[in-house]
Specification:
By secondary structure, the chain is of the alpha/beta class. The protein has helices at 43-52, 98-118, 142-149, 153-157, and strands at residues 11-14, 20-26, 56-64, 69-75, 85-86. It folds into two domains: 11-118, no CATH class; 123-161, no CATH class. β3 (56-64) and β4 (69-75) form a beta hairpin. The longest helix has 21 residues, at 98-118. It binds iron/sulfur cluster (SF4). The site of iron/sulfur cluster (SF4) has 10 residues, from loops.
Length: 161
């Protein structure tokens, strides 16, 4: 494809039951994870998945606070990581095939994002709520969209991650 990424994964654990888990530490506000939509909520984890190979069986963000360590992720079966659910297969698929099929979908999404980037497609199209806490909103092209519509509310209705 022609894209090379330099990435730094926070942590990769070898699991007792076999396979590896990718962990991504988060310090800020937790966002509800979406693993199945067209625009996954944690594309960085999908990029790590693409980089590491087929023995990855779980991936999660980890929020560490004074009160708790909270995993939010997905795995090829339940409880590989604390309170992390097993992957859901598409309707009618064999549960044993769910992880490899989803994995292929995630890799396709990463490739699609990379292809868009390489093709220079950079539409300002944030996901709902993405701009609410953004610290670079004042220099973002999203303000052009607001100026064009004359409606501030469009900021909170637009989308990107
Ligand atoms: S679209 Fe602009 S303001 Fe919204 S999250 Fe992205 S960079 Fe921030």
């Amino acid at each position: 494809m022609g894209a090379q990424l330099r990435i730094r994964i926070d942590r990769v654990d070898a699991l007792e039951s076999g396979g590896r888990a990718i962990l991504d530490y988060k310090s800020g506000r937790r966002t509800a994870a979406d693993w199945y939509g067209e625009r996954p909520s944690h594309p960085q984890l999908l990029a790590y998945l693409a980089a590491l190979g087929e023995d990855v069986v779980a991936m999660a963000t980890v929020n560490v606070t004074a009160r708790e360590v909270r995993f939010d992720g997905i795995a090829n079966s339940a409880e590989l990581l604390p309170k992390v659910r097993g992957v859901e297969g598409a309707f009618g698929t064999d549960p044993l095939d769910a992880w490899p099929i989803r994995r292929q979908e995630w890799l396709s999404r990463v490739e699609h994002l990379a292809a868009d980037f390489l093709a220079g497609r950079a539409v300002v199209d944030p996901k709902p709520g993405a701009c609410d806490y953004c610290h670079v909103a004042s220099i973002c092209r999203i303000s052009d969209r607001v100026a064009a519509t004359g409606n501030d509310a469009s900021v909170s209705e637009t989308t990107h991650e």
